[in-house]
Specification:
5 helices, 6 strands, 3-stranded mixed sheet, alpha+beta
């Protein structure tokens, strides 16, 4: 009876070991350990380690101030260069614009120099016709028409000159200007101040205020007794 009871107890012990929570029993060697506890211990030992952060060395206040001063100097230098570049570009733009405007205004300068010589011939011809008409007590109708035609033609030519900015100078009585006049003789100052223009032998012309032909003049000087 007792032997049967021991056999039953030996059969129940392995079954209890298998049904237990994490404990194992071996026959002949009553040794038990917890699997869950072992897993927890292994997990704690083999878990990922946190990377160690290297110690940061922040810049000192003196170094930051020095760096700020250096950056401010660079900003001032770049700003000054930018302003100079803007000024240079503006000067180039103005010079180019002035060059284009002068080319438009004075592109006909050479043509005007040649044309004023034609005006001189026309003026002298009209004066000659007027002189012949005055010499005769009864000038013929043909001579009178020629003089009138020449006068109209001269007036029309001067009108065209003025339309394009070409004007004849009238320096008589004015102060001598070396930029506008060329002295060919000196005349006694009779009723005129010395240094003024007393007579004109060839008219001068200006194109938009620029002298393209100097007037040939005689300047009044003090008479020496």
């Amino acid at each position: 009876m007792a032997a049967r009871s021991l056999r039953r107890l030996g059969a129940l012990l392995p079954a209890a070991g298998k049904a237990g929570t994490g404990s194992l029993y071996f026959r002949g060697c009553p040794c038990a350990f917890s699997t869950a506890a072992q897993q927890r211990s292994t997990g704690d030992e083999c878990g990922p380690e946190e990377p160690s952060e290297e110690p940061k060395h922040p810049l000192s206040d003196c170094a930051l101030e020095h760096k700020a001063i250096k950056l401010e100097e660079q900003v001032r230098d770049l700003t000054e260069r930018y302003r100079r570049a803007l000024a240079d570009s503006e000067n180039v733009r103005r010079r180019t614009q002035k060059f284009v405007e002068d080319a438009k205004l004075f592109g006909i300068q050479s043509f005007c120099r040649d044309l004023v010589e034609v005006a001189d011939i026309l003026e002298k011809t009209a004066e000659s016709a007027a002189g012949h008409a005055e010499e005769r007590s009864d000038p013929g109708p043909a001579l009178q028409k020629i003089y009138e035609g020449l006068s109209l033609l001269e007036a029309k030519l001067q009108s065209v000159f003025a339309k394009h900015g070409l004007h004849k100078m009238n320096p008589v009585g004015g102060r001598y200007d070396p930029y506008e006049h060329e002295i060919i003789c000196h005349v006694p100052a009779e009723g005129m101040r010395p240094g003024t223009v007393a007579l004109v032998t060839q008219d001068g012309y200006k194109l938009h205020g620029r002298t393209i032909r100097h007037a040939l003049v005689g300047v009044a000087v003090e008479a020496h007794e």
